[in-house]
Amino acid sequence: MIELPLPNELFEQLPRLNQQPLIDAHLRTVADDFQVNEILSFEPEGVGDHLFLYIEKQNCNSDWVISYLQRHFKLKPADVGYAGKKDRYSISRQWFSLYFPEKRSNEVSAIVETIDNDSFKVLTVTRHVKKLRVGAISENQFCITLRGLTEKLDEQIFGSLIANGFPNYYGYQRFGHQGNNLSKALQVLAGKIKVKSRSRRGIYLSALRSYLFNIQVAYRINHQLWSTALDGDCFSLSGSRSYFHCDKVDQPTIERLAQGDVSISGWLVGQQASEVTGAALTLEQSALTDFQPVIALIQSSPLGQRLQSARRPIRAFARDFKVLASNQQQLTLQFGLPSGSYATSLLRELFRIKDLALLENRND
């Protein structure tokens, strides 16, 4: 059986861009310390057969809410949509869609009013003509309080982080408690265990791809090539899932990279071969040399054959970054991140974080 270092341990070892001394800080001392608001990339039209619920949840993950809504409204799994998943140990506000035809509108209020639990509440109800799809997010807006700082952070240090971006690592939350999602992925692909839930299988396989992506980002940073384009690289467009291949890097592409209009991308391993060529392919293969058995397992397994290769930018930019409150031992930050980027990956550039949700064995 293939074995990999625990992702939580690996995450601590991933290289940082910031060379300044890190400050110790506690994250998620209380639920209010980690808040996130999901902003859709479109405005629901107010009419249509899909009921949109804007929900505030606490101490539960997005999958639990989806399961609850499915049972409560007596829907099929395919009838429930969402744009993204949010941390369990946080106060998160996000959208869900339910296939609930307009002809049944008179039932909605009564059904919504019967929702009775301590984990979430419905803030807004509206309608739209289409189901909510994964990734339909303009940004996630965070308000995070860090406590127990060992010293006050010089706010000028934020400048470089905001201007140049930060490594777009997948956060440790992706991998589950003690790397459980990762180990389960290897067992599923090898046929050692069977997981009936399609959603759960997807979580496991996504964790494995995320792990391999982090390896690529770390390799480029360690080789001083995080922001240096190579011939054959693929570039992600800012604010979009689109990307393009550049056989020969030209001056306009270099300028767009410097301006943040595009970013170098890494490979999300799937059935298709990576699209990079030339020097970029040589670098990518070097980064993943030790993980070829894992890639071969993904591409040969019947379940892995359903995974489509994709690209992800190796850097991300924080938007509207603000320091709301600061003193010697506490700091509150507000910022927006593009869909799929992790606040913990930004924070680790400045802090040596002790996530109390993780330390109390609560992370999933």
Write a concise keyword list for the protein shown above.
ten-stranded mixed β-sheet; globular; 364 residues; 26% strand; Pseudouridine synthase; alpha+beta; 2 domains
Mean of residue pLDDT values? 89
Report the CATH architecture of the largest domain: 2-Layer Sandwich
Structural class: alpha+beta
Quantity of strands, as a count: 16
Structural features, described:
The chain is α+β, with helices and mostly antiparallel strands. The protein has 2 domains: 1-32 and 145-364, Pseudouridine synthase (2-Layer Sandwich); 42-134, TruD, catalytic domain (Pseudouridine synthase, 2-Layer Sandwich), CATH 3.30.2350.20. Helix content is 29%, strand content 26%. The protein is built from 11 helices and 16 strands. It has helices at residues 7-13, 62-72, 105-113, 158-164, 180-189, 198-222, 251-259, 278-287, 292-300, 343-347, 356-359; strands at 23-27, 34-40, 50-58, 80-82, 91-99, 120-128, 137-147, 166-167, 234-237, 243-245, 262-268, 310-313, 315-316, 319-326, 330-337, 351-355. The strands form 3 sheets. Strands 1, 2, 3, 4, 5, 6, 7, 14, 15 and 16 form a 10-stranded mixed β-sheet that branches. The chain has a 4-stranded antiparallel β-sheet with strand order 10-9-11-12. A hairpin with a 3-residue loop joins strand 14 and strand 15 (330-337). Helix 5 crosses helix 6. The chain is globular and about 60 Å long. This is tRNA pseudouridine synthase D.
